[in-house]
Design a protein that fits this description.
By secondary structure, this protein is α+β, with helices and mostly antiparallel strands. The chain has 2 domains: 2-284, 2-Layer Sandwich (Beta Polymerase, domain 2), CATH 3.30.460; 285-347, Up-down Bundle (Methane Monooxygenase Hydroxylase, Chain G, domain 1). The protein has 11 helices and 7 strands. The protein has helices at residues 44-54, 59-65, 67-70, 99-102, 115-123, 146-157, 166-179, 181-201, 205-235, 245-311, 326-347; strands at 2-8, 13-16, 34-40, 80-83, 88-92, 128-132, 136-141. The protein has a 7-stranded mixed beta sheet with strand order 2-1-3-7-6-5-4, sandwiched between helices. Helix 8 runs parallel beside helix 10 (245-311). It is rod-shaped.
Amino acid sequence: MIAVHHWDATKKTCHSDCHDKLPASATEIAPDDVWWVDLCDPTPEEEAQIFSKFFPIHSLTREDITRQRVNEDKGTHLPKVEEFPDYLFVVVNPLTPGLGEMLKAPAKGTPLPSAADVRAKRNRRPQLSAVLSERVLITHHYEPLECVTTATAYLHRHAQAAERGPDFLFHHILDAMVDEYSPVVERIASRLDALESHIFRDPSPRLLARLLRIKRIVTGLRKTLILEREVLARLIRGEFALVEDREVVYYRNVYDHLVRYTELIESAREMVSDLMETHLSAVSTKLNQVMKVLTLISTIGMVCAVIAGIYGMNFEHMPELKWEYGYPMALGLMLTASLSVVAIARWKKWI
């Protein structure tokens, strides 16, 4: 599907969904007009119409844009920015839909998702490709993206914002995309805080599996955020002529938010590692407690076995063999020895 937004500099109006009025070529665009063409899950024919006829792009750029459809096994392209003679090509990775649901604690008895399922969702993370020129912004994605919807709604409310150019419109898309990280990062922090208290109460293999799942999510987010931070760093550096100096300050604001979320993810990554080590320590401590009890029981049993073994020897002349109170005496001796073992263990603070 192709959605088109056109800023008419002559009439000072912005028209949306004017696909039928899209010029045959970008060279026919009026000098002060601005066009935003959004391709959401486009067909190969629609991609050919935009990237071959309306705005021809380099074959390598088109290969990166269509990678998710052509080579599903390779997954989406990682964030990057490239400059070409007549356009700027940017790739970013918005949040995977349903990532927040993966962070929720599963109901008791519900099987945890396998590593293969988590890996598959990570490889299916969305890819947003953008081509910017002086008067044209083309965005391409195979899944509906909240950041594009937010930017479109902003454009409907503030139509004159399109007059500032494609770089200003793309800034709104990036800003909305980065803002999506806030609730996810907060949920990761809250989940880790909850798991921290559970670790000391009841360390278990299921709890460790939840930690591993969060670690995979955090690792994937960290990788994406670091690469997107590098993309924003290049955009605010004044390296590209298609990003005007007056818009750099807006990109810098997005960059600051991205840096903050990157630092929070770094902290979450360290916390996950610490919690996994804490979990192993808690399991070891729990095992030591169990071993203490088992050792104490074994020691008591050994003492009782010694006494029973002595009186079980097959000798004729043993003082207590024919004594009337020999059996109660033997049981009392076993009880006394057992209590003595427990008392010594408590005195030594072994238990």
